[in-house]
Protein backbone atom coordinates (compact mmCIF):
# COMPACT_ATOMS: atom_id res chain seq x y z
CA UNK A 1 0.00 0.00 0.00
CA UNK A 2 1.43 3.39 -0.92
CA UNK A 3 2.22 5.86 1.88
CA UNK A 4 -0.60 8.06 0.64
CA UNK A 5 -4.03 7.54 -0.83
CA UNK A 6 -5.69 9.31 -3.68
CA UNK A 7 -9.41 9.42 -4.27
CA UNK A 8 -10.67 10.16 -7.77
CA UNK A 9 -12.40 13.55 -7.82
CA UNK A 10 -15.66 12.03 -9.05
CA UNK A 11 -15.92 9.61 -6.10
CA UNK A 12 -16.79 10.24 -2.51
CA UNK A 13 -14.69 8.37 0.04
CA UNK A 14 -16.47 5.39 1.55
CA UNK A 15 -17.51 5.61 5.18
CA UNK A 16 -14.75 4.25 7.39
CA UNK A 17 -12.12 4.32 4.64
CA UNK A 18 -9.97 6.79 6.58
CA UNK A 19 -10.06 4.66 9.73
CA UNK A 20 -9.13 1.58 7.67
CA UNK A 21 -6.26 3.52 6.13
CA UNK A 22 -5.04 4.66 9.56
CA UNK A 23 -5.34 1.13 10.95
CA UNK A 24 -3.24 -0.25 8.08
CA UNK A 25 -0.63 2.48 8.57
CA UNK A 26 -0.38 1.66 12.28
CA UNK A 27 0.03 -2.06 11.52
CA UNK A 28 2.81 -1.33 9.04
CA UNK A 29 4.55 0.97 11.51
CA UNK A 30 4.39 -1.63 14.27
CA UNK A 31 5.72 -4.30 11.93
CA UNK A 32 8.59 -2.00 10.94
CA UNK A 33 9.43 -1.24 14.58
CA UNK A 34 9.38 -4.96 15.46
CA UNK A 35 11.76 -5.67 12.58
CA UNK A 36 14.13 -2.90 13.69
CA UNK A 37 14.07 -4.17 17.29
CA UNK A 38 14.78 -7.71 16.11
CA UNK A 39 17.72 -6.66 13.94
CA UNK A 40 19.17 -4.46 16.68
CA UNK A 41 18.91 -7.30 19.20
CA UNK A 42 20.54 -9.74 16.79
CA UNK A 43 23.36 -7.30 16.04
CA UNK A 44 24.30 -7.02 19.71
CA UNK A 45 26.21 -10.29 19.22
CA UNK A 46 28.66 -8.60 16.85
CA UNK A 47 31.19 -5.84 17.29
CA UNK A 48 30.88 -2.67 15.25
CA UNK A 49 34.01 -3.71 13.35
CA UNK A 50 32.48 -7.09 12.40
CA UNK A 51 29.33 -5.41 11.13
CA UNK A 52 31.29 -2.83 9.14
CA UNK A 53 33.48 -5.54 7.59
CA UNK A 54 30.43 -7.60 6.64
CA UNK A 55 28.86 -4.57 4.97
CA UNK A 56 32.08 -3.73 3.13
CA UNK A 57 32.45 -7.33 1.95
CA UNK A 58 28.89 -7.34 0.59
CA UNK A 59 29.57 -4.07 -1.24
CA UNK A 60 32.77 -5.46 -2.77
CA UNK A 61 30.99 -8.63 -3.92
CA UNK A 62 28.11 -6.66 -5.41
CA UNK A 63 30.43 -4.33 -7.28
CA UNK A 64 32.50 -7.25 -8.59
CA UNK A 65 29.36 -9.03 -9.80
CA UNK A 66 27.88 -5.96 -11.47
CA UNK A 67 31.13 -5.23 -13.32
CA UNK A 68 31.38 -8.74 -14.75
TrEMBL record:
InterPro entries (alphabetical): XACb0070_RHH_dom
Residue intervals of the XACb0070 ribbon-helix-helix domain: 14-63
Entry superkingdom: Bacteria
Matching Pfam families: RHH_6
Protein name, entry field: XACb0070 ribbon-helix-helix domain-containing protein
Lineage of the organism: Bacteria, Bacillati, Cyanobacteriota, Cyanophyceae, Oscillatoriophycideae
Amino acid sequence: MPPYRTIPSNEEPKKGSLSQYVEEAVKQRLSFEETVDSVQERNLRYSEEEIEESINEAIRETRATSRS
